[in-house]
Fold this sequence. Notes:
This is Cyclin-like protein. By secondary structure, this protein is mainly α. Helices cover 64% and strands 0% of the residues. Helix 4 (76-97) packs across helix 6 (125-139) and helix 9 (181-193) packs across helix 12. The radius of gyration is 26 Å and the shape is globular. The relative contact order is 0.10.
Amino acid sequence: MIAGNTSKDSAEADNSPVKKKNPLYEASTQYRNWRYSPERLEAVRTQLNAAAVAKIRNTFEADEPGSSANVAFLSASEEHLLVKLYVSKIPQLCGHFHFPEEVEATAITYLKRFYLKNTVMDWHPKNVMLTTLFLATKTTNNPISLEAYTSNIPKTSASDVLDLEFLVAQSLGFEFAVWHAHRALWGIWLDLQSLTDLPEDLRPQDIYEIALKHVRASRFTDAELIYTPSQIALTCLSIASPLLSQRWAASKTASSSISEPLSELLKDTLGAINAMVTQNGHPPDIESVREVDRRLKLCKNPEKVVGSKAYLARIAEEERLSERKRNKKAEDVRRALGEGADPFGSDLSDKEQAKRLAELDDDD
């Protein structure tokens, strides 16, 4: 799918006259659940940050009244900056382990999505990043043993990864399949090879490599949360070679009922992605992130700090609730046994069974 705004907040997204249908992509969880407008994306992060600050402030106050007065909590933009730093660590680790492009892109997507449901003040991006990368090796069918993975990363234990794996999977809604721009770019490049009126010297391989470099840069931005993989891929090709992107768009216009050139119809969308990639497609300034990380140590949720009063209180409460559930279950079993009933259920009488069968329709 190339044309049209992909935001779930835009009614035009599914009614665009220039939209190229892709039934497989439109049936994906990515299309349904992980697309935002820029405004909605900012609102999600702002609301998540505000809720986290309020909760952590209350935890501080419950432990020691007035203790939160001088705490400088992180803003939504500062949280995002810290996440972006750990996005930049994933390509480095993938290079060390020789993981394929699919693993790298998937791990980055998982990390971004995790922090649309969680806050860095609860879960530091370092361990979450290690977990998303390990999870991505499994979901992309490029598995590595946990021992081989953790032993090659300094100061990392198996628990650093495994303790968060279920939380990460749960935060992703167990939706692991990801549609990536680098695969869309390869599809566009293959299309270009089939254009017989395009001389070979106008489509050198280094153009593809340059475009792929811009696709990789787009992973440092919010592009994949706002636009489709094909839109991002076409933009990156247009940065590398405006001529090739125009010829590809012209070939698609010629094979459709669209009268206006596709490049004109997509001008605003491609321009917005171009600005996003060229202006923000790079790791953040390390000094600015170091200051954010320093402040995070002071405003981290004390319930997540092992050994703190809030942490011990949370563990005690969780154990109390678990004990209550176990006691209730045991009581239910005792009650059933005391009444002479079989706790595993009893057989239906012949009469009851006949009645049940008569009530079944042909679809049961």
